[in-house]
Amino acid sequence: IDSRWTNGAGPQETCPAAIGLSVAAGSTEDGAGLDFISEGMVYDGVSWPAFTLVPALQECHKEKIIALPTGTMSPFPWTPEVLPVQIVLVGNLALVAVPFECTTMCGRRLREMVADTLSSRNVSDVVIAGLSNAYAGYVSTREEYAVQHYEGASTHFGPWTHAAFMQEFHRVADALNNRASIGGGPTPRDLTDHQSSLITGVVFDDKPLFKNFGDVASDANSSYSKGQSARVVFWGAHPKNNLKTQSTYLEVQRWNGSSWQTVARDWDPETIYHWKRDGIANSKVTIRWNIPSDAQSGTYRIRHYGHWKSGWTGNISAYSGTSRSFSVQ
Description:
Helices cover about 15% and strands about 25% of the residues.
């Protein structure tokens, strides 16, 4: 960290992450901490002697009494070491996307710096968008960190955390100001293959004899009035086989005279997707469309999309199903 950001303390560094003891006291506003721990407990102070099990890390964290060294946990740190720094310009608005909770003064200084740096871009409003893209506890100013209240004890990377973020956000703001490109920086760890979960996976999916996945178990009526609900039940499979991220489990489609046009999906408030196990491995998927009062009259149908898992091979395959056509008046 360049001395420009350390208020006369010279060049500094951040520390491997650690959480301080005062976190256990809870915050002034929320309370509910441990009775024998209070905010404001500092290392080698009145309430805590110069005793630590992690001397090198303690030296870096200064006033913080280290309770949990999250950054040195094995096999992987419990706090991310690489964090995203992002500023988004929308007209005269600058959104500062920070991967942490920000104290009032931390945010105030950050906003003022970004506003000053982007003044030539006619930025008049700077908004802190907290907990964006990642999460690494609180960030407090150096002064707040020194007194080790809840927020200072929750500042993971030591006393110069705020200075480090000020430096990096200035680098991004300066690049925006000069319309210059900037390197992407280091890549965070990909721990996808190391995740553990207590949620059981899908063993296999089945269907009734002589039925196919996607077949209709209970079809829609032939006609509906606006304001009514169209309901279709399909023989389906477990939705955990494919979460349909950026996709959909259902579509409501209207015939426009030459083709079927999708008018609603599973993210629309007028649609409901409901999965229920039927027996040991069969599944029934109920799709309900609450027909809006301003829906166009015409011919509609409901489609369902899913994936089923074979109990023999473990392979997961796509399927789809379609209701009868029905009219809406």
